[in-house]
Amino acid sequence: MAEQRRDGRDVRDSAQEGRTARERAWDGLVATARRTVTDGLVVGTSGNVSVRVGETVLVTPSGVPYDRLTPGDVVGVDLAGRQVLGTLTPTSELPMHLAVYRATDARAVVHTHAVHATAVSTLVRELPLIHYMAGALGGPVRVAPYAAYGTDELAEKMLQALTGRTACLLQNHGTIAYGSTLDQAYDRTAQLEWMCRVWLTASALPGLSPTLLSEEQVNEAGERLKGYGQQEPQR
């Protein structure tokens, strides 16, 4: 049985509250990064994750397996890219992450090399509207033209593809998605990979072409999805 304080609250809850927002955010970042590997969205250290805490962006370090990361390995930069926390080198894709934070209200970013999404990025300039969940990402998912990884050029092309969207494909590279939380950014990444897999699967049957939705249908679904799930009670 969990130990209780005099006010009836679990002592573990009190201990959690005593930790800083940065510490909680780093733990969440590491958990999300590990999940991308467990769920098959990246191989090794090929993807990266970040979360914003105030004016500091916590990011996964370059080339370090996520299962080896500890609370003492925290890596943080300011919005100009200057390292303000830790000694490990930040991810090489830092320009993309910072570009998203400067241009949007994002609080978390997830970048992966997911198999189906990367495959689709080599075939089309925009993911065909195979499913209404594209509406949850803002509309038809664009493909940012190829540019070398870790460059400002890639970050610029990514931002263009993200205009009005919360996720995009990166040609011959992978995916990037952002959200107001790590969970939301991850969920958008997973939804994008799933839609890419559905389209590739449906397109693989000889002599048949998948039925696609119209942009109007996807936009309608996007509006309906804004009210999906449990809503916060009105006060």
Explain the overall architecture:
An eight-stranded mixed β-sheet has the order 4-3-2-1-5-8-7-6, sandwiched between helices. The chain is α+β, with helices and mostly antiparallel strands and 235 residues long. The two termini are 34 Å apart. The relative contact order is 0.13. It contains seven helices and eight strands, in the order H-H-E-E-E-E-H-E-H-E-H-E-E-H-H. Mean pLDDT is 91; it is low at 11-15. 37% of the residues lie in helices and 14% in strands. It has helices at residues 11-18, 21-38, 94-103, 115-121, 152-162, 182-203, 215-225, and strands at 48-53, 56-59, 76-78, 83-85, 108-112, 143-144, 167-170, 174-179. Helix 3 (94-103) packs across helix 5 (152-162) and helix 4 packs across helix 6 (182-203).
Q: How would you summarize what this structure contains?
A:
This protein has helices spanning 11-18, 21-38, 94-103, 115-121, 152-162, 182-203, 215-225, and strands at residues 48-53, 56-59, 76-78, 83-85, 108-112, 143-144, 167-170, 174-179. The protein is of the alpha+beta class and 235 residues long. The model is unreliable at 11-15 (pLDDT under 50).
